[in-house]
Design goal:
α1 (3-24) packs antiparallel against α2 (32-48) and α17 packs across α18. The protein is of the alpha+beta class and 677 residues long. The longest helix has 22 residues, at 3-24. The chain has 25 helices and 24 strands. It is globular, with a radius of gyration of 29 Å. The strands form 7 sheets. The chain has a 5-stranded mixed beta sheet. A 5-stranded antiparallel beta sheet has the order 14-13-12-15-16, with helices on one face. α23 links the parallel β21 and β22 (632-633). The structure holds 2-(butylsulfanyl)adenosine. 2-(butylsulfanyl)adenosine binds at residues 80-82, 111, 113-114, 118, 134, 170, 222-223, 283, 302, 305, 307.
């Protein structure tokens, strides 16, 4: 080992040790500042001597690697789920069943049920080599680089660890990180996450691990697997993992009977409100491994464990006022402003009243106290009115009759709950909505612009239609300012700097190569979705032909019925639309289809295929592959469907329907095998 190698090794060891004090023992020995100095020194050295970087280097915590596509792999041991219940009598039943299968005294371990995303960590010879998401339980996605940024995940084990170890647990986002992340997202005009679990799961799938490092995620250990592990019970095993470098679970107790379980459940149903991270229940496990074996498992879940889930929390709070918001499609949504109230760890100030019918059914009056509920996973929901607290002479809250933005009288289509503003082309939120649709991923994919920036450009009068985007210049964008308010009501000014401006212009320029079918989708013809646009583009191949097609000609396209055809005709009868299309064409967008791609094989000829769920490659790519091999993508299941390619999280409804109709469901892997055949 030369001098440099030695320096790198020493620094790495020192930093890893401090990480251990900080994350595992909650007992830092040096200041954050001194820690950063050490880390900076190591980063510099590693940059100069990349060959000497150690596999457990603490610089991996900072992130910086980019993962374009997460590889999917099979789990060594399937990741089972838990049977769950909301009722105490089910717990008693669980206890009776377990006892009936055992003849000796028994001990349960009670733990918190963390509300995050399950992760499997593989350690080979003490080194973290792989982190895999749960996926469908048999296969998951490899997210190692992202997981390595999480401080409470050990990169290397210490002590007498086994050759192979699989540690399982949950990646969670503490409330503090969650609130900070959402505040930031709202500031830049991005959709906030509905709950910490979604935020954790979204974070794990970020492409840039440096971004993951900033998300404040944490790992909670709950299970271990491996060959010849030394201990004979769950509790002792997790204690052993603690010796090898993991954090010991924040709460884990052994009890001898179901009464002990109930005590634990009752205690945590109250105390959970003080926890800094989300839990949605309690997990009860038989402690002894031999007894676990005796009780056994089903294909889906162990019989020796059960999850008790907390019921949704409910509070009542006064209604202060009702706002009417106009969405991007013109739908008007009533939103209740509530007296701020604490509910399951977050402060609730607003909650949706959905639509006019909902308000009428709830019979909401001015000054009413409303019941608000929050289950583990959902955003606060209004579930009723506390009628007893209502004033005698309280008046009903009236739904607006005119658009609160542009004043146009509102309309409602028969059979639909939504009330909408029909002033599609001149009502601000609807104009912004069209712009947002235009830049969205499946349309022109201008990702350097987002909702926040569109709003700014619109408010400044720079962009009113999509065509205006192509007239933007460096000068018109540079120095644009946006005032944003934080939670405490303090305002700050953000301004467009050189890099932002260049990114925006580059993104706009790039969009000129987007193929015709997506341009046709982007220009926002009502009822013309992504798939329909593609079919229309393929048949007519040119915007002029589409614009001059008769209703009958349009209806020759599969998927285009009378309603869609009428909408296309109306679109091209509107002079504002025609002018916008003309300007977009002058700007250089693709209004003609390119050469038709020849299928690369006929392996799927004549087959109607549905893809459903999340795959190792983007779904769009999978659909392309189907078409390139002569297959046809269809969107709804029928007898004529040849098969369904099922990814992670395929919708249960779809699965049920496929099963009822006897349509085969195959995995991504099996699908690719078909292509080879
Ligand atoms: S034990 C074989 N313990 O809940 C045992 N799971 O449906 C498997 N979870 O996906 C799980 N906290 O991600 C266990 N203390 C805990 C847990 C826990 C949260 C999650 C886990 C799993 C789901 C069960």
């Amino acid at each position: 080992m030369n001098d440099i190698q030695q320096q790198i090794a020493q620094l790495s060891e020192e930093i890893n040790r401090h990480n251990y004090y900080y994350y595992m023992l909650d007992d830092p020995k040096i200041s954050d500042y001194d820690f950063d100095l050490l880390l900076q020194r190591l980063i510099e050295l590693e940059k100069q001597y990349p060959d000497y970087v150690l596999p457990d280097s603490p610089t991996q915590r900072v992130g910086g690697t980019i993962t374009k596509q997460f590889q999917s792999v099979a789990h060594v041991y399937p990741m089972l789920s838990l049977g769950n219940t909301y009722s105490e009598s089910d717990l008693t039943e669980f206890d009776t069943r377990v006892r009936s299968l055992l003849d000796a005294p028994l001990e349960y371990v009670c733990e918190l049920k963390y509300d995050g995303v399950a992760i499997s960590l593989i350690y080979e010879h003490g080194l973290l080599t792989r982190a895999v998401t749960r996926g469908d339980g048999t296969r998951g996605d490899v997210v190692t680089q992202n997981v390595k940024t999480i401080g409470s995940v050990p990169l290397r084990l210490t002590g007498d660890y086994p050759e192979m170890l699989e540690a399982r647990g949950e990646i969670i986002m503490p409330f503090e990180s969650f609130e900070a992340l959402n505040a930031e997202r709202e500031e830049i005009g991005e959709q906030p996450f509905a709950n910490p679990r979604n935020a954790a799961s979204g974070s794990l799938k970020l492409q840039n691990s440096a971004e993951v490092a900033k998300r404040g995620l944490a790992f909670k250990l709950y299970y271990a697997l491996g060959e010849n592990l030394p201990e004979h019970s769950h509790y002792d095993q997790l204690s052993k993992l603690h010796q090898w470098g993991f954090r010991f679970p924040d709460v884990m107790v052994k009890v001898n009977n179901i009464e002990g379980v109930f005590d634990f459940v009752h205690q945590w149903d109250v105390k959970r409100k003080e926890l800094p991270f989300p839990i949605d229940g309690i997990v009860i496990k038989v402690n002894d491994f031999a007894q676990q074996q005796q009780v056994g498992s089903t294909a889906k879940s162990p019989r020796w464990a059960i999850a008790y889930k907390f019921k949704a929390e409910r509070v009542s709070t006064p209604l202060l006022s009702v706002d009417f918001q106009v969405g991007r499609t013109g739908i008007v949504t009533p939103v209740a402003n509530l007296q701020p109230v604490n509910l399951a760890g977050t402060v609730v100030r607003r909650a949706t009243l959905n639509n006019r019918d909902f308000m009428r059914d709830m019979d909401i009056c001015e000054g009413d106290c409303l019941f608000v509920e929050k289950g583990g996973e959902i955003i606060p929901k209004i579930v009723g009115v506390d009628v007893e607290k209502r004033e005698m002479d309280a008046r009903h809250v009236r739904f607006v009759e005119n658009c609160p933005v542009c004043g146009t009288p509102l309309q409602q289509n028969e059979g639909e709950a939504g009330v909408f503003c029909p002033n599609e082309y001149h009502c601000a939120p609807q104009i912004r909505g069209k712009l947002e649709h235009f830049i969205s991923r499946k349309a022109m994919n201008i990702d350097s612009l987002g909702e926040g920036k569109i709003e700014l450009l619109y408010n400044q009068g720079l962009v009113k239609t999509a065509a205006d985007l192509y007239a933007l210049t460096y000068e018109s964008l540079f120095g644009l300012e946006k005032v944003v308010e934080d939670e405490a009501g303090k305002s700050r000014t953000l301004s467009f700097k050189e890099k932002t401006v260049q990114n925006i212009l580059h993104g706009i320029e790039q969009s000129k190569t987007v193929p015709f079918e997506r341009v046709l989708y982007a220009i926002g013809i009502r009822f013309v979705g992504e798939v329909t646009a593609k079919k229309i583009a393929r048949k007519f191949r040119n915007i002029d032909v589409v614009a001059s097609a008769t209703k009958e000609e349009l209806m020759e396209v599969e998927d285009v019925g009378s309603r869609v055809a009428d909408s296309i005709i109306a679109y091209f009868n509107d002079t504002d639309n025609l002018q916008m299309v003309m300007r977009l064409r002058q700007a250089g967008l693709q209004f003609e289809a390119g050469e038709e791609q020849k299928p690369s094989s006929q392996a799927l000829a004549g087959m109607n295929i549905i893809v459903s769920g999340v795959f190792s490659i983007p779904r769009e790519q999978l659909k392309e592959i189907i078409e390139q091999n002569g297959g046809k993508n269809v969107s709804s299941i029928s007898k004529n469907t040849t098969f369904v390619v099922a990814g992670e999280k395929m919708g249960p409804e779809k699965r049920k329907k496929a099963e009822t109709l006897g349509v085969p469901i195959i995995s991504e892997e099996e699908f690719f095998k078909k292509l080879e055949a």
